[in-house]
Amino acid sequence: MFKNKIILKILDYYKDIWALGYTSAIAHWDLETYMPPKGIEHRAEGLGRMATIRQKLFLDKEFVGLIHKAYNIKLLTDQEKGVVRVLRRSLKFYEKLPKKFIEEFEKLTNKATVVWREAKGKDNYKFFEPSLIKIFGMNRKMADYLGYKDSPYDALLDLFEEGLTTRQVQEFFDEIRDPLQKLIRYDKPHFLENARYNKNKLRALNEKILRFLWPEFGQNFRLDESTHPFTTSFSNLDTRITTWYHERDFNRSLLATVHEFGHALYDMQSDPALEMTPIASGSSLVIHESQSRFWENFVGRSEDFIKRFLLDFQSVVGKRLTVDEVLMYFNKVSPGLLRVEADEITYHFHIMLRFEIEKGLVDKKYNVSDVREIWNAKMKEYLGIVPKKDSEGVLQDIHWSQGMIGYFPTYSLGTFLAANWQGKDKKWLKEHIHKYGSTYTLQELLKKNQMKFDPSVNLDYLRKKYLQNGA
After folding, report:
1. Do the Cβ atoms of 223 and 206 come closer than 8 Å?
2. How far, rounded to the nearest angstrom, does the alpha carbon of residue 89 sit from its chain's CA centroid?
3. Which of 69, 232, 433, 455 is deepest in the core (most CB within 10 A)?
4. Residue range 276-301: mean pLDDT, rounded
5. Ordered DSSP codes for 124-161
6. How large a percentage of the chain has pLDDT more than 70?
């Protein structure tokens, strides 16, 4: 896998960079789970300085020289080529961004995460607004530093999906918008949406499901609770996901858990030989989101899944339930306020809204002070509903507080890609996707599997499911 002497030198040096990233990831995970809120001042300072140390290690002249030398070597394995590709992308980032900028951005976004959490709890967008003004301002500067051809938003999209452009995202949404609008319907409210559940029993059920999906749960994989569900993989021997709990509507927690499992599985099934290298786990966010959305939509909402855990669902809500009742509950279609709980059809309008707002803010077409009103107007336009609370509107997602401008489009692109995995199991996913980590780009991986990104695959699936079956 790794045989070239130059590559081996690179990987040996890279372990110091990996160690910093490993430690930073633990600090970030703790920040979002168990850290006392007042700890953010020193945590942000520490993470900011660690980010600049990482940059310093990357820009070591000898290391940079090795990367350039490796780029000119023709006879490399696919994994060795992947290492060079990923490191060259990182090198571009660290060479173009000033040290002070990297440190300040890290401090800002870590502090903003705590501010966002408090603002969401208070339903007060204005409390978060000053942080968001700074975040978008720094993202515009970042785009200028990194460079772009057509739009500054291109530079930000590229950070999450290699080579992705605003034009490509716009063309994708233009292609799926009308077909999806024709599929929108308004199913009646389901009684389980208002059914209270036993939190302890649901927590136990989430763990039972994860243990069923991954027998080593509790050994190299764990579940915790956070304000917004997320996945962090320190290595394929230590991967962690979080979910959330509410008083009612148990699939809000359950499907979030299954979604995050999809991310975790990708990392846990990465080839162990890639650990501590630049290509360990998946770097393509479109591929990553295709995994999480595959498990959420094609497994978690399936009849087989519901049959297997029906008795557990009954225990959680304290009611007798039929398979058909739960199947309708998991697959009902009706415009809602929250992206993460949206059905398979209306979900993409939530992403279009965020894409349009992000692009508008980066292009200075919109002002951050107007985002709440713009958000509400677009929700009315796309889905016919308007949030009454900021926590169910502009403050519902954690991404902006973390500075991740350009991430959202990967959710829709990943969801449409996920339709290609219908009928696949964990073994197939491991052998054809997961084990390669970041060795290949999205297009290279699809070509390797004799596939292509074709939105019609998911549109046909949705038409069959919601028009013919009437689920």
Report:
1. yes
2. 20
3. 433
4. 95
5. -HHHHHHHHHHHHHHHHHHHHHH--SS-HHHHHHHHHS
6. 99
Q: In what order do the strands lie in the sheet with 221-225?
A: 221-225, 238-243, 231-235
- Per-residue pLDDT band at 281 (split at 50, 70, 90): confident
Distances in Å between the Cα of 313 and the Cα atoms of 138, 178, 308, 416 are: 46, 36, 10, 29
β-bridge mates for residue 240, sequence order: 222, 232
Helix (H, G, I), strand (E, B) or coil at 367: coil
Cross-strand pairs, 231: 241
Instruction: Tell me the C-alpha distance between 410 and 421, whole Å.
Output: 17
Cβ neighbors of 364 (< 8 A, separation 6 or more) are 140
What value does the mean pLDDT of the chain take?
96
For residues 3 and 126, give the distance between their C-alpha atoms in angstroms, rounded to a whole number.
Answer: 55
How many Å apart are CA 211 and CA 381, to the nearest integer?
42
| Integer Cα distance of 463 and 471 in angstroms | 11
Integer angstrom CA distances of residue 408 from 26, 42, 256, 359, 411: 24, 30, 16, 11, 6
Question: What tens digit of pLDDT does each residue of 389-420 get?
Answer: 999 999 999 999 999 999 999 999 999 999 99
260 tagged catalytic: yes
The domains located in the chain, with CATH, are 5-468 (1.10.1370.30)
Q: Terminal CA-to-CA distance of the chain, rounded, Å?
A: 47
Pairing of strands 221-225, 238-243: parallel
C-beta atoms surrounding 122 within 10 Å: 14
On whether the pTM is more than 0.90, the answer is: yes
Exactly one of 103, 161, 260, 289 is catalytic; which is it? 260
Residue 159, both tokens = 């950070």
Strand 238-243 with 231-235, pairing: antiparallel
Counting every residue written for the chain, the total comes to 471
**Share of residues in the chain with pLDDT > 90 (%):** 98
92-103 mean pLDDT: 97
Among 287, 285, 271, 283, residue whose Cα is nearest residue 90? 283
Q: Which amino acid is at 124?
A: N
How far apart CA 354 and CA 38 sit, in angstroms, is 30
**pLDDT at residue 469, rounded to an integer:** 55
Closest CA to 409 of 169, 179, 142, 176: 169
Residues 234, 259 contacting (CB under 8 angstroms): no
Q: How many CA atoms lie within 13 A of 169 on its CB side?
A: 31
pLDDT at 471 over 90: no
